[in-house]
Design a protein that fits this description.
- By secondary structure, the chain is of the alpha/beta class.
- The protein folds into 2 domains: 150 residues, Alpha-Beta Complex (Aspartate Aminotransferase, domain 1), CATH 3.90.1150.10; 253 residues, Type I PLP-dependent aspartate aminotransferase-like (Major domain) (Aspartate Aminotransferase, domain 2, 3-Layer(aba) Sandwich), CATH 3.40.640.10.
- It contains 18 helices and 14 strands.
- The strands form 4 sheets. Strands 2-8-7-6-5-3-4 form a 7-stranded mixed β-sheet, with helices on both faces.
- Helix 9 links the parallel strand 3 and strand 4.
- Helix 4 crosses helix 6.
């Protein structure tokens, strides 16, 4: 009897609790929706909502609208060489074609269609156990194919005059951006952690730091000295961050600079390495434009070589170095090939990065193939070398001429000053606008450089990016444009800029 009554009471309690849970569940379901949608923009991860990326922001989206309406748009907002006419290097595409369609290797006329060295390289990719024996349709190791990582290690050794690194300290990635985000994600543990970033900066950094809930700690480049790096500014930046309770864990530098185009000297890099050791921060060397150098006074110097040449700290400076196939003479953005080399990074941390990379199974295979072809190109005596060398050198020489053309054009305009584009793919002119233009921008609810760039886009079809998207000294205004339109087109672009700017300034006198 007692047992039956206890059972009834227990059942009643469970029904009561179940009812409460149902009510609570219904309440949570209501809070989980807005306007009938779980995926309402107001209910997204707050870090996604706070993230901004100006290169594909308001100006780009408006340009896409105009393009769909039939207006010709010159997309100088992003470093996308092939989209603006840069031709691919023949040898790399020949090898990729054979790797992507291996049945061509069995065609009786294959040696009439493809040079001997392209056929040989394709067979190496497809037959070597350390390359991609499963072809482009198979996964590789999560770090990327071992044979290609060995080629990257040898490329770094040859470039820097150092012993080849352990290929397991190299990760092949879907473009350098993925590698940058992976390293930032590992560094930033929460909102108390900060990363020092040059201002102006490429917004990959500000966007990723915001996404991972970290703090961007700006250090300003000196426009008056050609976007120079000042040691006292580094000290100011880290002191200010620490005074706010921010734990600075990393320092980014971009060499050659984006959007600023400056090339750092060996002395600049030595100063950064010493700063990293003294302050206990990890260096992140964005060196994706290392082939894009347009003057002879400051050639590219890698941070890897600088650290190796400083005996007092060569084993102490923790360094991530990034490179890609998207820039330089290859400009193969769509292949999404990149790498990061880990120098003096704890082996346990490398293992953790490998674990996270494994979530994606492997980087894309054609991007890895293109990376191999970039770091291990045809050599003197190979059938493809003459054409490869001519194409590569011709592209860089043309970019050097275009850098002068764009810089000279900007500096000829009223109220415009532009530091010469020493490297990378961009000009970043400063604009001083008349008071009436500033008032018109305010009335439109836009920063002055955004207002200027929107007018430029609407009237000429040229899509540039306002300086507000990169950061700039307060009270100054800039915009970034690539130097990538082909030489036969760039004269037209320059004239469009000149005519627009002259009319704009006259309108707001």
């Amino acid at each position: 009897m007692l047992a039956k009554r206890a059972a009834r009471e227990s059942a009643a309690r469970l029904r009561s609790l179940g009812g409460a849970n149902v009510l609570a569940s219904r309440g949570m379901a209501t809070e989980n929706k807005k306007d009938g949608k779980v995926m309402h923009p107001d209910l997204l991860n707050r870090h996604i909502k706070a993230t901004e990326y100006a290169v594909r922001g308001e100006l780009y989206l408006r340009g896409e609208e105009l393009r769909r309406e039939g207006k010709e748009i010159i997309f100088t907002n992003v470093g996308n060489p092939h989209a603006l006419g840069q031709p691919p290097i023949t040898f790399t595409r020949q090898v990729c074609a054979l790797v992507a369609a291996p049945m061509l290797l069995d065609h009786p006329d294959v040696d009439m269609l493809f040079p001997e060295d392209a056929i040989y390289r394709a067979k190496v990719f497809l037959q070597s156990k350390d390359m991609i024996p499963g072809g482009i349709g198979a996964y590789s190791d999560s770090r990327g194919a071992l044979g290609i990582r060995k080629e990257v290690a040898q490329f770094i050794a040859d470039r820097d005059g150092v012993a080849p690194t352990n290929p397991d300290n190299i990760f092949l990635t879907d473009g350098a951006s993925v590698a940058v985000r992976s390293c930032l994600h590992a560094l930033i543990r929460g909102p108390e952690d900060g990363i020092m970033v040059p201002i102006p900066q490429y917004p990959l950094y500000s966007a990723s730091i915001k996404l991972y809930d970290g703090q961007l700690c700006p250090y300003y480049l000196d426009e008056s000295t050609g976007w120079g790096l000042k040691p006292e500014e580094l000290k100011r930046s880290i002191a200010e961050a620490r005074s706010k309770g921010i734990n600075v864990r990393g320092l980014v530098f971009i060499n050659p600079g984006n959007p600023t185009g400056q090339c750092l000297t060996k002395e600049d890099l030595q100063g950064l390495a010493q700063f990293a050791k003294d302050e206990g921060v990890v260096l992140m060397a964005d060196e994706v434009y290392q082939e894009n150098v347009y003057q002879d006074e400051r050639p590219f110097v890698s941070m890897r070589s600088v650290v190796a040449g400083m005996p007092e700290l060569k084993d102490d400076v923790e360094l991530f170095s990034f490179h890609t196939v998207s820039k330089g003479s290859h400009g193969e953005c769509g292949f999404r090939g990149g790498y990061v080399e880990c120098t003096n990074i704890h082996p346990g941390t490398v293992d953790e990065i490998y674990k996270i990379a494994s979530i994606n199974l492997s980087p894309n295979i054609l991007g890895q193939v293109m990376m191999s072809l970039m770091v291990n190109p045809p050599k003197v005596g190979d059938p493809s070398f003459p054409d490869y060398n001519r194409q590569r050198k011709g592209t860089i020489a043309s970019l050097r001429r275009r850098a002068h053309m764009m810089t000279d054009a900007f500096n000829s305009l009223e109220g415009v000053e532009c530091v010469f584009t020493e490297g990378a793919m961009y000009s970043f002119p400063k604009i001083t606008l008349p008071p009436k233009a500033m008032e018109a921008a305010k009335a439109a609810g836009k920063p002055a450089d955004t207002f200027y760039c929107l007018r430029l886009l609407e009237e000429t079809g040229i899509s540039a990016v306002p300086g507000t998207g990169f950061g700039q000294e307060p009270g100054t205004f800039h915009f970034r444009t690539t130097i990538l339109p082909m030489e036969e087109k760039i004269a037209e672009v320059v004239e469009l800029f000149k005519n627009f700017h002259s009319n704009f300034m006259a309108q707001y006198k």
